[in-house]
């Protein structure tokens, strides 16, 4: 006797909520029906929807949507942790971005979330020795979203990039879990050295808009980097730094700055 089929929406509360929100969106704005159906409601899982969305956004005359979708489908199928990371990123954006009121928003509209998921496919290609294809994904993400992430960079889960314009993350950079950053952040090198030359960002770090973190330095967990700062030295855990060059101006102010998204210094100045 054949086993009964179980639709994923019955066992996956996140995907079920996404589908429910999508139905409401179509009712509220019928003109978006084609977009919402093709991007969400025609799919049986988050991984399928992400593969479609990534391929649609990155397709060009150089590489078709069909080929890119096959690549993304292969990555999600071979590495289920990519889907886990995507779900964690999605919830992170929903919980931390004051402009995000529904789970469908990052998937459909937010280039920070979309770029990170495309990077994850490129990183999977890189780890599997398919470097040229990974470089192609990097190039298209940069051209389409204005976000340049080297496919060899290591980025954790629960990442929220708000506004996400002009983000640069270098080849040997490491970003921990539950990190939040705003637009125009650079995790870069300081010269032409060809070794481990990029920052290591700990878990729970909040990086303000326009901050530049340069060189093979470590930013301790749950620290805050004020907007416009230039960080050139290691930062201890749970501190706030500001300035050019950045210096410690106080404690982090809370245990999870990347979650609270509180960027005001208040009485942190020493």
Spell out the key features of this protein.
270 residues, 6-stranded mixed sheet, alpha/beta, globular, 9 helices, 15 strands, 5-stranded parallel sheet
Figure out the total of helices: 9
Radius of gyration: 19 Å
Q: Major sheet, described briefly?
A: 6 strands, mixed
Strand content bin: 15-25%
Distance between the termini: 72 Å
The mean pLDDT is 93
List the strand order in the largest sheet.
3-6-9-12-14-15
Number of strands: 15
Shape call = globular
Helix content: 40-55%
N-to-C series of helices and strands: HHHHHHHHEEEEEEEEEEEEEEEH
SS content category: alpha/beta
Low-pLDDT regions: 1-10
Tell me what the structure shows.
This protein is 40% helix and 15% strand. Strand 14 and strand 15 (247-251) form a beta hairpin. The N and C termini lie far apart (72 Å). It contains 9 helices and 15 strands. One of its GO terms (molecular function) is serine O-acetyltransferase activity.
């Amino acid at each position: 006797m054949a086993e009964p089929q179980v639709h994923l929406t019955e066992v996956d509360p996140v995907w079920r909520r996404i589908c429910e929100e999508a139905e409401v969106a179509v009712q509220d704005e019928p003109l978006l029906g084609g977009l919402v159906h093709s991007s969400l409601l025609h799919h049986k899982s988050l991984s399928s929807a992400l593969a479609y969305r990534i391929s649609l956004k990155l397709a060009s005359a150089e590489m078709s949507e069909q080929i890119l979708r096959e690549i993304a489908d292969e990555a999600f199928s071979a590495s289920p942790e990519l889907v886990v990371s995507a779900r964690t990123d999605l919830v992170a954006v929903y919980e931390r971005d004051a402009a995000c009121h529904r789970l469908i928003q990052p998937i459909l509209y937010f280039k920070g979330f979309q770029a990170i998921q495309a990077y994850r496919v490129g990183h999977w290609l890189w780890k599997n020795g398919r470097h040229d294809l990974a470089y192609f994904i990097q190039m298209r993400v940069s051209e389409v979203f204005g976000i340049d992430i080297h496919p060899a960079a290591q980025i954790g889960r629960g990442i929220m990039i708000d506004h996400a314009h002009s983000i640069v993350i270098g080849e040997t950079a490491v970003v921990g879990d539950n990190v939040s950053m705003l637009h125009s952040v650079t995790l870069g090198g300081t010269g032409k050295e060809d070794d481990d030359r990029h920052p290591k960002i700990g878990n729970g770090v909040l990086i303000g808009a326009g901050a530049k973190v340069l060189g093979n330095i470590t930013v301790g967990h749950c620290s805050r980097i004020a907007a416009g700062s230039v960080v050139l030295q290691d930062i201890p855990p749970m501190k706030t730094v500001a300035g050019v060059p950045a210096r410690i101006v106080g404690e982090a102010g809370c245990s999870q700055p990347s979650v609270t998204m509180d960027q005001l210094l208040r009485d942190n100045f020493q």
